[in-house]
Amino acid sequence: MVAVGMETGLALPQGPSAAVAPADARLVTPALAAWVGAAVAVRWSLPDAALVLAAAAVLTVPAGLLTRARRRHRRAPGSGSVAAPSSMDDGGDGDSHGYGDHDGFLPAAARVALTAVVFLAAGVLAGGLAARPGNRGPLADLVRRGVSVSARAVVTDDPRPAATATPRVGPPTATATTFVVPVRLERVTAGSVVVRLRASAILLGRGVGWSGLLPSQHLDVAGRLAAPRAGDTVAAVVLAIRAPRLRGDPDAVQRFAGRLRVGLREAAAGLPEPRRGLLPALVVGDVSGLDGDLRADFRRAGMSHLTAVSGGNVAIVTAAALVVAARARRGLRGRAVVGVAALVGFVVLARPSASVLRAAVMGLIGLAAFAAGRPRAVLPALAASVTVLVLARPALAVSVGFALSVQATAGMIVFAPAWHTALARRLPDRLAEVLAVAAAAQLACTPLLAWIGGGLSLVAIGANVLAVVAVPVATVLGVLVLVVAAVSPPLARMLAHVADLPCWWLVTVAHRCAHLPAATVGWPAGVLGAGAAAFAALVAVAVLRRRWGRRVAAAAVVGLLLARCAVVERFASWPPAGWRLVACDVGQGDALVLSAGPGSAVLVDAGPDPDLLARCLDELGVRRLPVIVLSHLHADHVDGLPGVLGRLPVGEVLVGPLREPAGQWRSVRRWADRARVPLRTITAGSRGQVGAVCWTVLAPQIILHGTDSDPNNDSVVLSARVGPVTILLTGDVEATAQRLSLGRPQDRAGLRADVLKVPHHGSANQDPGFLAASGARFALISVGTGNDYGHPAASTLRALRRAGMAVARTDRDGALAVVAPRSPAGAGRPGESGQPGRPGESGESGQSGEGCPRPGVDPSARLSVSDRDEISVVRRRAGEGS
């Protein structure tokens, strides 16, 4: 029988008539209170007075209640028995699943409120103490000054390239050649100042010496201190200036775990692409070899939780160990010991991520109950694990992965049993169980997924139902491969080919589901989207509880499908007629599509998400890309290339002269070589044309070194002409490079445009004179919802508005389309017929673009005032023009 999501350890009631016991929710209140308190304290810097008050509440409220209980005990007549049982007892006339009125000791509401206050204060205290080293004290002072230091640290997690690391870690300039290494600082020395402490931090190191570090490794490192990003949970970021100096070896356990992980990776290396990277990701969370396209397919299909170790993996491994122990005829306690050993070993092997920790603590509680011969109470176990974890590791309180894990598990506990019972009346029991689990988990996670953004998957439930048959098999076989690899690598490679069969099934399901029509639907991100999704989920649960509600729901689904068809027909004009440029909504990055003719376009930058970029091009009807221009090599401008190369015919990729970051350049070359697409360097003065698109490279005039960010300041700046519209495409140039572009009158004239693509996602590092020099009517900002950089900056928005520009931004408006009417016939503008350019005729393959007007030189390059008035920007999310 399938356990609830293979994570909770709760067996669903069997058969259509099975009773569903109410969940014991008494521990939910303290868990939520502790979670909220820790999150507030970690996210915002609280004064010491708040921590003192929290400590006072933690100490005094329980003491007061104990004193009150003792006084009532002394007043109670009879044999001295306590007059009122504890609020956590199951006896008396109260509700055994709530806070019943136990003989009037305290009203139920007062008990709940006091419990919440105590655990809220405990969460505030734990979170405040954890965040304190980064908020005040000697380390915080050194971080604010950005001084150079030597530090002694202990590695706490595996290094990972910054391009695949969580975007909340490290400064915005981190790149793929930079390794992100979570550490615990033990000593920091700055000149004569020596600070001894225990504070979490991030090391950012380039080059060799970083990728092979293991948890528990002690090291010395020299570098400069920097502040973590807003809302981060580490005390400092150390920008290392050289490779670390190792102090001894990692402990024996981590060395052994590291060898096992490497053995699994090597055994899977012989599998076909893209499955060779899936087995390590599925078993131990090693995503270093996971293919970008496959990652995008899993995300679009709602299966991305399978590409990282989750509570399901913990449950599968622990359950397999229990089965083996039972076959060996171990008693309850013996089986529990085996289960604990397997659980702890797997956590060490897979690393203690948020969902793994949650499942591990729940598993330990369940195994303790199992050993004692008591029934498992799953909701209390979940609540207890949340309480323990947010108090022990307050950073988890603001972890999205932890929140998704808890929400999914809670949904399976609360909703799945009843839904399984209802579905089992009409469906086979096993199918009903799997459907109930998948639907419950998806429903519970929907509000948070909406808040994150990127749309909601319509195929997630079906995809996970199809995947459930393969996940346990692949996980168990993968663990066998891992163990066997330590003693016999050839045998491990043979077993890996056996494990490849369920991996093939998972890849097939993800790919087919991800590419179904309307696999995902657009949904507002942020608080509004989360609130709307939560309200819809609550209404759905309430309605589906009634028989008439299910009929209404069925009718509503039909109606919504018909309405969606109508909406698709109504908005079939997206992209709107006459679009010349679309800024795709790809999150925190750039991807701009310039229309060269039917089915043909020029792509400028390929921002971070391959899936979102591929979807944007599909919606625009782009079937070929004669040219891709990369303004610079940062991940938020190039990491979407795998979503294009190999999927669409691409003529060539144009890059600027700077080859930094080196690691990202190697990735671009690898992707291009794999797709057999040539790379060509462009410099200032280069010109080209594809159909209706003409461009001239304005910058970089010289290669800048030693700036705050050389790749940003050396971005390729283009003046592009798309039919009648002139666009200034600026990459991520910052104020240093912007001022150079204002140096000569002819350079300033070349900046003139109708539309400005605002540099660097609207960061504060701008020269207002550069922004105003474009004379643009519209400013487009490609920026991600809720990004941690503060983009776009208020100062930049003010400068744009002072320059008379209407501002549109992808984080609020979705994709942005610049629309203009056709040019008058005979205007002599190349490519205006809308047909794509042909090699040798319109410069499709990077020809000189002699038919294009020169920016700032040819007077026909500018439109008349009346022509400019007909240019508009259509915001997709708002469905309006400006």
From TrEMBL:
Q: Which SMART domains match?
A: Lactamase_B
Q: Bias regions of kind Basic and acidic residues — which residues?
A: 865-882
Membrane-spanning segments = 49-67, 305-326, 332-349, 356-375, 395-419, 431-452, 458-487, 523-544
Q: Which Pfam families match?
A: Competence, Lactamase_B
Chief localization = membrane
What residue spans carry the region label Disordered? Answer: 70-98, 815-882
Keywords, sorted A to Z: Cell membrane, Membrane, Transmembrane, Transmembrane helix
Q: How does it sit in the membrane?
A: Multi-pass membrane protein
Is Cell membrane there in the keyword field? yes
Where, per UniProt, does this protein localize? Cell membrane
Q: Which InterPro entries match?
A: ComA-like_MBL, ComEC_N, Competence_DNA_uptake, Metallo-B-lactamas, RibonucZ/Hydroxyglut_hydro
Task: Output the Gene Ontology cellular-component terms.
Answer: plasma membrane
Domain (Metallo-beta-lactamase): residue spans on this chain: 588-760
Ranges annotated as biased composition (Low complexity): 77-89, 830-851
| CDD domains, alphabetized | ComA-like_MBL-fold (cd07731)
Keyword set includes Transmembrane: yes
- Which NCBIfam families does the UniProt record give? ComEC_N-term
Q: What is this protein called?
A: Competence protein putative integral membrane protein
